[in-house]
Amino acid sequence: MAYIKNGRFSTAETPKPLAIVTANDESHVQATVLCTKYSGLEIRIRSGGHDYEGLSYTSIVPFVILDMFNLRSIDIDIKNQTAWVQSGATVG
Question: Is the pTM of the predicted complex or chain greater than 0.70?
């Protein structure tokens, strides 16, 4: 929870996730989605860490955080003028 930018979401009263899954590849994302769906849990997604409203860190029902910070590659195809940016990519 060290990535929380807004301190009001890291108080003792703030509901905490049952687990934090740090995805290192796409299969971790798929497995987390399937497991939480099967278990009836909600998922909160954390990617670049710019969630100032706290939607990735709070819920009134049991939840799991899927941290996609490590999925931050950027692939640029100049010929086709396209780019693929993973959700954990940040500016700078």
Answer: yes
